[in-house]
Amino acid sequence: MSARKKTAEAAAATPVAESSGSRRMLITLALLGLAAGGIGYAVWGQVGSRVLSSSEYQIDPSKIAITPPPAWIHSDIKAEVLRDASFEGPLSILDRELTARMATAFAAHPWVAHVERVSKAFPSGLEVVLRYRQPVAMVEVQDGALPVDVEGVVLPTGDFSPAEAEHYPRIGEIKTTPAGPVGTKWGDASVAGAAQIAAVLGEDWKTLGLFRIVPAGRKTGGRNGVEYSFALYTQAGTRVEWGRAPSTDLPGEVPARDKIAKLKKYAADNGSLDGPDGPQQLVLLENGDVSSQRRPPIKALPKTDE
């Protein structure tokens, strides 16, 4: 064989040898990486709990910052969440599931409507952004009244003194009790509809001298198959036939803002919603006008012998 042919054969064989060597090197590196990962996992299994519980990485409750609660909330939201969540062991900033666990814990509090964000603040803090529920009315029950928000969610009663509770609209003549614990919806369409009316009236409630909202009948064909109409009462006893809740999708209902405007105009023109001769009945017509007539006196119940 000539020297030139041997040289050519050697050159042709070189890439094969190099390729084989490269594969062996990659396999070796991969095995070393897996081994290192396995060793690291094993080591973390031995020391991880100690690292997570290290004081350097522990979260001091004073370094958990939450959205400041509004004026109507008097309880300590953060303290109650940390107490009720029953976290096992110290909280560590290195815990990968910490933000999710915190979000779940705060979402369970009855005053919290939504957890917007939980983020870590290094070296050892948390920032929790919350949206709170707002009370709009008090539902009359046998032993007092229960606060609810615009969705009919039952709120903690401990945050309201008797004087504070008196500032809210009353929802009366409710025949049901809450379907679940505090922080869940009442479960009655009449409560939810009345709460919507109280919320849309806002400060106009006091301006118009209103006192109570009551269900005044059921109408079929709404979004949920049945809807309630409602009546409002002033402190003096005038009854306002309001109609359905603001969320209704049934035709022929005057928008809530137009109803409020008509009632405010009537009160401005007549001094109040009450008639000059005593309580009356006001009807909000489909064209937006207000019809009034005097209410008949309430007959006293006959006395019975003991």
Structure description:
The protein is an alpha/beta fold and 306 residues long. It folds into two domains: 72 residues, Ubiquitin-like (UB roll); 158 residues, 3-Layer(aba) Sandwich (Rossmann fold), CATH 3.40.50. It contains seven helices and eleven strands. The strands form two sheets. An eight-stranded mixed β-sheet has the order 5-4-6-7-8-9-10-11. The longest helix is centred in the first third of the chain and has 50 residues. The radius of gyration is 34 Å and the shape is elongated.
Key traits:
306 residues; alpha/beta; disordered C terminus; 2 domains; eight-stranded mixed β-sheet; Rossmann fold; 11 strands; 34% helix; 23% strand
Strand order of the largest sheet: 5-4-6-7-8-9-10-11
Q: Count the strands? A: 11
Silhouette: elongated
List the helices and strands in order.
HEHHEEEEHEHHEEEHEE
Number of domains: 2
Query: Residue-averaged pLDDT, rounded?
Result: 82
Largest sheet, if any?
8 strands, mixed
Low-confidence stretches: 298-306
Percentage of residues assigned to helices: 25-40%
What Rg do the Cα atoms give? Answer: 34 Å
| Broad structural category | alpha/beta
Q: What is the CATH architecture term of the largest domain?
A: 3-Layer(aba) Sandwich
Give the number of helices.
Answer: 7
CATH class of the largest domain: Alpha Beta
Portion of residues in beta strands equals 15-25%
CATH topology of the largest domain: Rossmann fold
Q: End-to-end distance, in Å?
A: 135 Å
